[in-house]
Amino acid sequence: MEPPEEPLRPVIYTMENKPIVTCAGDQTLFASVYPTLSQQLPREPMEWRRSYGRAPKMIHLESNFVQFKEELLPKEGNKALLTFPFLHIYWTECCDTEVYKATLKDDITKWQNVLKAHSSVDWLIVVVESDAKKKNKTNILPRTSIVDKIRNDFCNKQSDRCVVLCDPLKDSSRTQESWNAFLTKLRTLLLMSFTKNLGKFEDDMRTLREKRTEPGWSFCDYFMVQEELAFVFEMLQQFEDALVQYDELDALFSQYVVNFGAGDGANWLTFFCQSVKSWNGLILRKPIDMEKRELIQSQEATLLDLRSYLFSRQCTLLIFLQRPWEVSQRALELLHNCVQELKLLEVSVPPGALDCWVFLSCLEVLQRIEGCCDRAQIDSNISHTVGLWSYATEKLKSLGYLCGLVSENGPNSEDLNRTVDLLAGLGAERPETAKTAQSPYKKLKEALSSVEAFEKHYLDLSHATIEMYTSIGRIRSAKLVGKDLAEFYMRKKSPQKAEVYLQNALKNYVAEGWALPITHTRKQLAECQKHLGQIENYLQTSSLLASDSHLTEDERKHFCQEILNFANQQKESPGLKVILSMHSFAQLKHLHFDPSNALVHVGGTLSIEITLLSQMPVSVQVEQIAISVHFSIEKNSYRKTAEWLTKHKTSNGIISFPNENSSVPFSRSNSPALELYEMYERSPSDNSLNTTGIICKNVHMLLRRQESSSSLEIPSGVTLEDGAHILKCSNVTLDPGVNKIIFKTQAKEPGTYTLRQMCTSVGQVQFVLPHIYPIVQYDVYSQDPQLKVEPLTDSLLAGIPQKVKFTVTTGYYTIKNGDSLQLSNADAMLILFHAENRAIIYSNTREKSSEASLMIQSSEKVTSVSLPMAPAYHMIEFELEVLSLPSAPTTSGESDKLGNKDPHRKNKEKQKAGNCMVTLDQKVSIDCPWSIYSTIIALTFNIPFKATHSLLSAGKRKYIQVCVQNLSELGFQLSDSNLIDTGNSPELQLVPLNAKCQQHIYSKQSVFFVWELMWTKELPPSMHCHFSLDFYPASEDRSISLKPYSYEFQVENFFTLYNVKAEIFPPLGTEYCKTGSLCSLEVSITRLSDLLEVDKDEALTESDDYCTTKLMYEVVDNSSNWAVCGKSSGVISMPVTARATHKVHMEVMPLFAGYLPFPDVRLFKYLPHHSAHSTQLDADSWIENDNLSVDKNMDDQTDNSSLKSKSSSHSAASMEHKGLPMPRLQPFPSGQVFNSSTGMQILVIPSKDDHILEVSVT
Amino acid sequence: MADEALFLLLHNEMVTGVYKSADQGEVENGRCITKLENMGFRVGQGLIERFTKDTARFKDELDIMKFICKDFWTTVFKKQIDNLRTNHQGIYVLQDNKFRLLTQMSAGKQYLDHAPKYLAFTCGLIRGGLSNLGIKSIVTAEVSAMPACKFQVMIQKM
Amino acid sequence: MAVCIAVIAKENYPLYIRSIPAEHELKFHYTVHTSLDVVDEKVSAMGKALVDQRELYLGLLYPTEDYKVYGYVTNSKVKFVMVVDSSNTALRDNEIRSMFRKLHNSYTDVMCNPFYNPGDRIHSRAFDNMVTSMMVQVC
Fold this sequence. Notes:
C: 139 residues, Beta-Lactamase, 5-stranded antiparallel beta sheet, 5 strands, golgi apparatus (chain A), TRAPPC10/Trs130 (chain A)
């Protein structure tokens, strides 16, 4: 008989709980169907639609069938839900109306009444039918009748409250159907009941919660009620819903605590404020901790009790829901939270109690979780559990400290007492963990039992935690735990174990630049190293600490003193030198060279001033500061020269050093800067731009992966390299902050000196700056003395005084008293000197050092300039005035030669460079005191003037014109123009036609001078002239008498042989010439002299004493005013006798109206062909002359016809050069032919019919 | 950018300014470019800080590049990058077919030789933006027919 | 409300860190520094998340007995860490979030300040005041 007879105790065996269903009526019948029923019911899930808009759920129903008893029905206000019967079933298999009437009806009615009385409406009547029964019944009614009766009698309008179950024990399809129908019905009704009753329950619960502000309200009562609901959900396997209930309770409670903190405390809360007496952590091993539950029920629970219970329930449910990680996370929150709440509620807690509680709880949770998942899961979820681990570690640590288990000489009596009290608080171990070896309880007890045990457990935990942190990459956290461990070791006086942890932590903080942790950890490290007796490291750390601004003044002084003590104590017993890196001791800020360009000559002194920022809190007496210098011979000699010195202007000689500020580790500049350039890409074909852009030259540098800079660690292994050259500075006191130290050095060998490292020695301690960066160099140079002479103006002018600057660079040579420059006078260049000649002396860095007046003596051969005394590597500058004579004066002896040359040179000049000035070089050799060889200095002077001459004729009268052109930039005053015939033949005479007064000639202008040439007897074929002209710059008054400007030239066969005269006559009968009408041109050529020397050439033909020469005339009209009709040129033979005249007539036609200049008539010598050779010869000669004459022509009249003729004759010449003999033309020297009709004009009047003429001409 | 025109004009002045100042002093190739680029860098850093203030966290490098091409470009140049290409090895090419800072100058090849100085600032802008988003990079530029231009971003893997 | 506020650079060195009361400074430095572990963890986890979950606020980094540590990471990988007294239960997530927003805005201004160059410690008084306001508020 399954259903238990005795009334159920309201005990909860949670999981085995099922909703209760009562059974009335035929018990045996029920018993027979029960097995099938109980195993069929849960088979199919049923959808549960729920109130309060909660999502419907599929749920498998089970239930606990008990015999119907009136006591089972809940009284009013009974909140027990687990014992609540959700459905009442009445069983019968009656099929006989009599029986029905007689007994069954009443029975059912009674049953119904009872239910009504308890206002429970969830009932069902089951009529079981079996054919078997029918057999042995006589008066058989239709099966249905009983059912119908029951329906009529009881189920008014809800006919579905009565169901039929056919042959439940057969297995026929019919049976099956009826079973299914029945089960479905049953389930539906059950669910309906749940919905209804739970709904009702929740409503009541809510109303109860609303009452919470009322005085009598108790949280514990409410807790029980809501938990009831939770239980039911759990019973129905609705763990989510169950959890929700607990979470609500949790939240509600927390809220109360908060409010309490805020001031308004509910009086029930005071229960929870009882001081904590037991702290035996969480218990999560059984689904329900009954003891605690009862405590709550009886309102005796402490806060910890309540929390523990609540959490254990939540934990259970979460684990049902397979959310262990949420457990661990919630656990951590809970633990923290409890600690807070106890604080908030000012609950008195014995010291250490909480630590115990937390420690136990952590381990309990961890073990519970480990209990329900496998290694793999755990390992992959360390991040969830590690928090608990470290918390536990932390707590154990503090317990250790509390109970004096960390001191090296064990716990004292009061420690022990405390321990005992703590253990007492744990109570006895719980049965459920009693068996497990590693239970939290055991652990804790053991850990607190002895120093060794504690150490073991603490180390285990720490290592485990560190390992876990590391495994999930929480390095920083790991380091922190490590530090605690280190502290522990230090307490245990085993620094060697501590060191590594401290170092690691420190490394990490330094790498990430966390100042305070760095300082703190360093302090610990220092202590550690001190214990370990690592002198060097300790001192290094101390120096870092002494310079640490995050420490108090006293602390810093202390560490500084540590160093100094060591340094001094070592002094007595000289032992090893300790070498430390400098950057913590003092920082090199600036370095300042004097001279500022860091360049000195051999033997010069260089001073280097360094600015040291001392980091020490007190002034430190330093024996010596030394800078080791590396010397390298300068390869490119240029750097050593004086010019370099002037160009090489370093930034005012101050080099600043970046301050290695360790607090910011990533000075973003640790990667090289981009080198960007503009890019222009031209197309190969035509190099036109086809792309431009920006490119980066040092990509390869930048794209290199750079490992995070660990450079900031204390530079280990700083070694002092001893360079040959060392700059020293002894007995310095470094005050805190800025110090300036000056090193002086005497430059020795020329070359480049690089400052490598700096070393400060305090006693036996040396602070070394391993390399000085940025690179600091100074240069030593030696220099040869030298003299430089350069004009002040960009070009020197000849003929007038010019300033020339002398620069003596003394170099290594020291100018003694009496040293002088010996200038050998060049005859054409004078050195003029005045009293007030002064020399200025500069140092090589061009600072003016002194000034002295200059002694200059001059003999006819040499001028000696006595130099003022000057030290080596200085410069003496002075100016002298020199005067170069315009053109070399000529001794009249070789006049001819010179004369011939003269014009030629001029011509060359002319052709060469248009009208730029003629230059002449003056060489001066100077003897310098420092050298046995004399220096040759060449000065180039420009002659300011250019002179040209020309011969003019008027009939037989002759004139000579000289044109002086001023090519210079200045203006001059001209005077005393003078022209003489150097051949001074008495019968010749030059009559000046010039203004006597002096004239001004402006820059780039010309002045003309004219003389008439008179003669009495016959003229010489050539004549040699000398032109001279006084001049002086218009600016100054003529103080110094200057040599006049002179110009020599020669004129040849200037006697007029022929006179050419052209006349044009209008056509007969007309008064004027008319355009288009022919006029007659008469050219008359008259011989003016008898036979002369000049005529003696191959054109001359002599027959007895009558000789003729051949002439060719030519009429050209370049202005093309005239059309020359018929032959325009011809050859005539001219008798060589005075007044012989030859007339030629030809026809010309004016093409335009107006005053037309006459066509030009030219006359040439006509030389018949002789021998190729001779012609060759002549050709050359006359080409020369022709050239010459052409030039003259050009100067004289600006008619380029002559050029034309020349070119023509040239062509002629060139043709016969090819060999075929032909006569040649030779123009007359301009003097020999006078054209009396040059410049004449004649009036031409336009004709009526121009246009016809046009035709006729063309 | 408050007003586009203002930015453009300001930018032009900046370029000319920088180049003038260089004329006085030493002027080796690239000095001004670098100067401009550095200006851009700083500006980029500031801008990105503002622009990304309210955006969701970026998923990855590409996500960031997209942001630069879309939002960043739009806010600065009032248009998006027209085409973004990458080799998925940390090289990105951003092509702008009508680059704001070149449009006023000319189309085609005239002034092509001046183009670089008008790109430097923007190169910096990009580099600065990226670096502030934690991406070290090198940005170069290329123009063959104005006003179209390409910016190449080389990401420095770290 | 907040007892410690820190701004931490990309490279994990502090740009700004301020805490009250002063005597706990060191402890806070350690706390904040360790919290970076969780920041890294969360950020890397966040990368995979969907856009809408990729917000800059990281939420509670980790609770300790006496403090709650919250985190926030800007797109420029600058981290904000805020430590709040656990007893201060009044603070809800949203308030923390909005505090971070304020912090971020203020930081952005710092970044755009010509006298600040990125990566240096923050000395801006404006920023300082803003932080102070967040620290004194309530409590």
